[in-house]
């Protein structure tokens, strides 16, 4: 079946349904490609940043090693070191009396974790929305197309295979289009969610180690140099 027939012969509602499904499909595949590549880059960047941090002889060298990295682990390391400096720089201005370095560092790292997790989850809401709504959009297009076909058949007063199969066939394509947009979105959502969960565990483990090292390292007691 030539889908262009739908745009030539379908009414504005049916055409709008197909355009909406096409837009959903394009957005889905764009997110699949972009978020998939981003997840791969994040995993690679985290691995390199973690190796660079723990291989450094001191925290100053570690910070320099990940200064230009946009990996989440590199960002956590920089935020942790910045938090230690900020704490000691303001220790005699009331901040040091309000909480301990342990509490202040925990808050800073927890905030950094939340920020990096939010970046990883970007686009997942759209995938979930497409996966849950596209089948119903397609079903609405099918119902509307069948309704118009029956009205047209009733107006003609004649019923034959030729007059029924064409309009109803075009209407049923809307359901298939809805499923074609929804299935990749659902599969991509599940895959990216699992990938983000794995990355989140890696970040959580690194954050725990970072917190422990910054509290126990001799350098940390003097403001990390």
Can you give a write-up of this model?
The chain is built from eight helices and no strands. It has helices at 4-9, 12-55, 59-65, 72-89, 95-98, 101-120, 124-156, 161-216. The longest helix is centred in the C-terminal third of the chain and has 56 residues, at 161-216. The chain has 225 residues and is mainly alpha-helical. Helix 2 packs parallel to helix 8, helix 4 runs antiparallel to helix 6 (101-120) and helix 6 (101-120) runs antiparallel to helix 8. The protein has one domain (4-222).
Overall, the morphology is: rod-shaped
- Give the helix tally: 8
Oligomer: single chain
Main beta sheet: none
Overall mean pLDDT: 83
Q: Quote the beta fraction.
A: under 5%
Distance between the amino and carboxyl termini: 70 Å
User: Poorly predicted ranges (pLDDT <50, ≥5 residues)?
Assistant: none
Order of helices and strands: HHHHHHHH
Helix content: over 70%
Overall domain count: 1
What structural category characterises the helix and strand content?
mainly alpha
User: Total number of β-strand segments?
Assistant: 0
Topology:
Blueprint: H1 4-9, H2 12-55, H3 59-65, H4 72-89, H5 95-98, H6 101-120, H7 124-156, H8 161-216
Supply the key terms.
225 residues, mainly alpha, 8 helices, 84% helix, rod-shaped
């Amino acid at each position: 079946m030539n889908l262009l027939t739908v745009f030539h012969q379908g009414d504005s509602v049916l055409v709008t349904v197909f355009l909406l499904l096409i837009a959903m499909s394009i957005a889905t595949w764009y997110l699949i490609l972009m978020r998939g590549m981003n997840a791969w880059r994040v995993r690679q960047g985290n691995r390199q940043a973690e190796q660079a941090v723990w291989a450094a002889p001191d925290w100053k060298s570690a910070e320099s090693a990940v200064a230009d990295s946009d990996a989440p682990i590199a960002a956590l390391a920089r935020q942790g070191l910045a938090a230690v400096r900020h704490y000691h720089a303001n220790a005699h201005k009331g901040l040091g009396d309000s909480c301990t370095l342990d509490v202040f560092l925990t808050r800073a790292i927890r905030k950094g974790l939340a920020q990096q997790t939010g970046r990883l989850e970007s686009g997942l809401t759209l995938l979930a929305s497409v996966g849950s709504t596209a089948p119903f959009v397609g079903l609405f297009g099918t119902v509307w197309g069948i309704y118009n076909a029956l009205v047209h058949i009733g107006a003609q007063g004649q019923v034959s295979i030729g007059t029924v199969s064409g309009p109803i066939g075009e209407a049923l394509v809307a359901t298939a289009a809805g499923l074609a947009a929804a299935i990749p979105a659902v599969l991509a959502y599940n895959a990216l969610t699992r990938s983000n969960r794995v990355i989140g565990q890696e970040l959580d483990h690194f954050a725990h180690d970072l917190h422990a090292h910054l509290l126990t390292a001799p350098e940390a007691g003097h403001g990390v140099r």
